[in-house]
Design the sequence.
């Protein structure tokens, strides 16, 4: 099939099936799954409001029942093509009713909508389609023509192209039945605004969307007759959140295909909308396009966010008594985090209090109380988001956003926030709007440069006047070195300032005139903040395989191994059989993934003073690396101890290609060997990690014991359910991975919020690692694994794929009881034929593909948590390590 072809078949070809099997989608399985699911909101609308209008676009309108029918029928067409719950479908086009219906149809099916920006290039959007794992791209007519020139792209061989209206797809007689939405299921993938870096994908779950919708309603109020005017892009979280709020709250979306300030002003003045979402530049244009008079009472709220609202605009809104509700939100939190009440424009209120279900704290707090804002709660991705925004909270808990961390300019050791300079400039009558970015400076580190859009009345000598104006209101180090006149500031299609474009212009035009020469001054009180990152990438390309990655860190890992072996004597020198048993296992080696995680996280913040030669470590760095090796050894010792104990409990005969320690030295020696390694691990943590990491390691060991006890409780019985099994692997495997990442990050000096992100990433990574182990036990290649299939099942242990297969085919329980569980403890082992039959049955249920999807979903969660950290070589290698473990075959 061609890379982008019409879907003219009933079922996808094998390439599409393979792509879908690898998608990172979570599964809701096992007892209690239904309790974690919500009825489809479009179906609920049709059942409760029926003829109530819920969508209006141009001259057309859809009632709740009409919309639900259209959505269900289009979902049936997708289903007939072979698309299933969890599959990703990309949407590309200008805002339209067809876009909205297609979006809801993907949700009705249980799929995930990947929302692409029509303002981006064809090449960029096709790259995102390929990276997202989408097997279908739905686009409007104009995009369909543009994409025809790209049908030969090899990476898009499994992607098919249809129009948003699904006109060319075969008709289906019956609409698709409603499917509930699991709270943990991903519903949509949006891309961040990309104002300072490249846009990145952010998956949002049902839970995030529903909590966000109801939290918004508690602050803005709810009226069943509400009509929310949507003139912001639908592919952005601002537009999508309008669709989801109206779906959950049973209100109407008034959709404008594009932003037209005059048309929006007329709609608001005529009472056509009670709510509208705008960014400050859009509101400024709406006010300019209409008479300077109050809005009608029918307008309940103007939700204003996406960028700072400057004082001149706020003062204008106060004069009009406009019901502006200042808000702050992010893509990672499904839109709003804090929102003020409509009309509350008091100067001291910031963006208001956090909405219900959200908690905001300030990390890395500076003497001026400003720091990175962290959000916790069910609307935050992974439960905790360390935002890129700087801010503070006042004594009433209200949040004040001071700027973005990647916008901060460090000049002569002082922190300069562009927003403060911009606000000062925009108070000048000749300045329509301003934007400030930093330009590298050999003496100061960086200096602010101001780009200004001037009023028509501005005179030719305005630069000198602006310089004097800034000197009157700002400290000297915050005064811009130059004022660059522009006709307009570069903005995204949702109105956000693109500072990256301004920085690029400075690079292209380095000779921008400075306002006045400056003389460097010494840094105040030794506040020297000009450091360079010492974490240079060790090679041009990240290692493509896990083996190469381990070879890349061979020196470090050898020293980790030496640190492990130093706690036991050589076999011939050991005084006790317990020491010999411990040495026997340690000498067999292992993957050392936990050690790799610890070592990499310790390099997440390796600072080197400016001017120090590359590759030369400071004494502090060398000490940190030594400590990292010892903590990595402690993690591997703890893991080895559990293996020694496991082999005794399971009566295991082989481990890492050699006889187990219990076979060679006996059960008692193996148990004592495990105890010896645990105590040695704790000693290392106490010496090199300190009391907090020691306390956390003790908690991890306690958790691992609980997990082992739970597994033992259900061993040999068919009583285990999915929820309990997940708890077991979280306890036995994931907890230690989480500790490893946190331990490394602690050595790197990362703040508490980032340590929490690391631990969450490690836990998801650990679960994914165990799920792949479970999968390989059933479907792996014995020649690669060095052992046969179904060994866990032969020992009476149910794993994730088996639980999924039992859920799909309950009759499998009888086969398992007959072939496996009834014979445990006897001399009658299952025959080769019986094992082959069980394996075939399990694979036929789709459990292998489901397990792989669940592992990829956990990998995605681990990836998303790491992506909230600052970009660095160590972060990129960690991301690659997670990918490699999800792809492994042994």
Sequence:
């Amino acid at each position: 099939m061609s890379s982008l072809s019409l879907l003219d078949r009933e079922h996808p070809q094998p390439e599409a099936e393979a792509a879908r099997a690898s998608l990172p989608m979570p599964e809701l399985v096992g007892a209690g799954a239904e309790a974690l699911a919500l009825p489809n909101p479009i179906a609920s609308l049709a059942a409760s409001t029926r003829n109530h209008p819920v969508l209006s676009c141009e001259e057309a309108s859809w009632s709740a029942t009409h919309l639900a029918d259209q959505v269900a029928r289009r979902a049936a067409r997708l289903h007939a093509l072979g698309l299933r719950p969890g599959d990703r479908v990309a949407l590309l086009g200008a805002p339209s009713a067809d876009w909205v219906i297609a979006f809801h149809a993907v949700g009705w099916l249980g799929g995930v909508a990947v929302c692409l920006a029509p303002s981006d290039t064809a090449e960029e959007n096709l790259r995102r389609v390929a990276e997202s794992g989408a097997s279908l791209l739905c686009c409007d007519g104009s995009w369909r023509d543009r994409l025809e020139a790209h049908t030969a792209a090899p990476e898009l061989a499994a992607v098919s192209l249809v129009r948003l209206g699904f006109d060319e797809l075969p008709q289906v007689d019956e609409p698709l039945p409603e499917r509930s939405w699991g709270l943990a299921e991903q519903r949509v993938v949006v891309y961040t605004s990309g104002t300072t870096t490249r846009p990145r994908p952010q998956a949002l779950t049902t839970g995030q969307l529903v909590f966000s919708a109801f939290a918004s309603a508690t602050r803005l109020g709810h009226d069943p007759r509400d009509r929310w005017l949507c003139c912001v892009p639908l592919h952005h979280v601002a537009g999508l959140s309008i669709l989801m709020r109206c779906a959950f709250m049973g209100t109407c979306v008034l959709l404008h295909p594009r932003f037209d300030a005059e048309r929006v002003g007329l709609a608001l003045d005529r009472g056509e909308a009670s709510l509208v979402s705008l960014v400050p530049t859009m509101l400024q244009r709406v006010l300019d396009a209409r008479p300077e008079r109050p809005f009608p009472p029918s307008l309940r709220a103007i939700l204003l966010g996406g960028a700072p609202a400057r004082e001149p605009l706020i003062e204008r809104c106060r004069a009009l008594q406009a019901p502006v509700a200042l808000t702050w939100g992010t893509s990672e939190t499904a839109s709003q985090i804090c929102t003020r009440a409509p009309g509350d424009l008091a100067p001291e209120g910031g963006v208001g209090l956090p909405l219900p279900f959200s908690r905001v704290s300030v990390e890395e707090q500076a003497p001026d109380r400003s720091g990175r804002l962290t959000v916790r709660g069910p609307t935050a991705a992974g439960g905790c988001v360390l935002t890129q925004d700087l801010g503070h909270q006042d004594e009433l808990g209200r949040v004040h956003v001071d700027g973005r961390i990647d916008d901060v300019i460090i000049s002569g050791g002082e922190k300069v926030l562009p927003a403060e300079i911009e606000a000062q400039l925009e108070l000048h009558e000749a300045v329509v709007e301003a934007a400030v970015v930093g330009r590298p400076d050999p003496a100061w580190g960086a200096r602010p440069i101001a780009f200004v859009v001037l009023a028509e009345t501005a005179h030719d000598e305005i630069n000198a006047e602006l310089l004097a104006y800034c000197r009157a209101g700002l400290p000297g180090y915050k005064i811009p070195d130059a004022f660059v006149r522009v006709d307009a500031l570069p903005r995204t299609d949702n109105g956000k300032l693109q500072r990256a474009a301004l920085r690029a212009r400075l690079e292209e035009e380095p000779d921008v005139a400075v306002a006045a020469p400056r003389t460097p001054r010494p840094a105040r009180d030794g506040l020297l903040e000009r450091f360079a990152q010492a974490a240079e990438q060790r090679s041009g390309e990240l290692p493509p395989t896990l083996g190469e990655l381990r070879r890349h860190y061979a020196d470090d890992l050898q020293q980790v191994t030496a640190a492990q072996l130093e706690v036991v004597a050589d076999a011939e020198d050991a005084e006790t059989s317990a020491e010999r048993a411990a040495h026997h296992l340690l000498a067999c080696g292992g993957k050392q993934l936990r050690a790799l995680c610890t070592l990499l996280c310790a390099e997440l913040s390796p600072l080197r003073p400016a001017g120090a030669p590359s590759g030369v470590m400071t004494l502090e760095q060398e000490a940190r690396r030594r400590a990292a090796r010892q903590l990595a050894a402690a993690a591997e010792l703890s893991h080895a101890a559990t293996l020694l104990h496991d082999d005794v409990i399971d009566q295991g005969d082989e481990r890492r290609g050699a006889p187990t320690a219990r076979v060679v030295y006996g059960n008692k020696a193996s148990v004592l060997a495990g105890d010896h390694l645990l105590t040695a691990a704790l000693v290392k943590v106490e010496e090199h990690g300190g009391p907090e990491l020691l306390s956390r390691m003790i908690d991890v060991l306690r958790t691992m014991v609980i997990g082992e006890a739970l597994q033992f409780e259900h061993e040999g019985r068919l009583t285990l359910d999915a929820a309990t099994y997940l708890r077991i692997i979280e306890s036995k495997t994931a907890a230690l991975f989480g500790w490893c990442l946190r331990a490394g990050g602690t050595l790197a000096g990362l703040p508490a919020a980032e340590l929490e992100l690391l631990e969450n990433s490690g836990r998801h990574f650990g679960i994914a690692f165990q799920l792949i182990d479970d999968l390989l036990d059933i479907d792996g290649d014995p020649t690669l694994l060095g052992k046969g299939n179904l060994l866990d099942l032969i020992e009476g242990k149910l794993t994730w794929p088996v639980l999924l297969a039992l859920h799909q085919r309950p009759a499998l329980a009888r086969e398992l009881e007959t072939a496996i569980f009834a014979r445990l403890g006897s001399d009658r082992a299952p025959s080769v034929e019986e094992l082959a039959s069980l394996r075939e049955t399990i694979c036929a249920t789709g459990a292998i593909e489901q397990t792989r999807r669940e592992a990829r979903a956990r990998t995605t969660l681990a990836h998303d948590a790491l992506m909230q950290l600052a970009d660095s070589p160590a972060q990129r290698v960690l991301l690659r390590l997670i990918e490699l473990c999800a792809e492994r075959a042994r």
Summary: Residues 1-34, 515-543, 606-616 have pLDDT under 50 and may be disordered. The longest helix spans residues 667-714. The radius of gyration is 30 Å. The chain is about 45% helix and 15% strand.
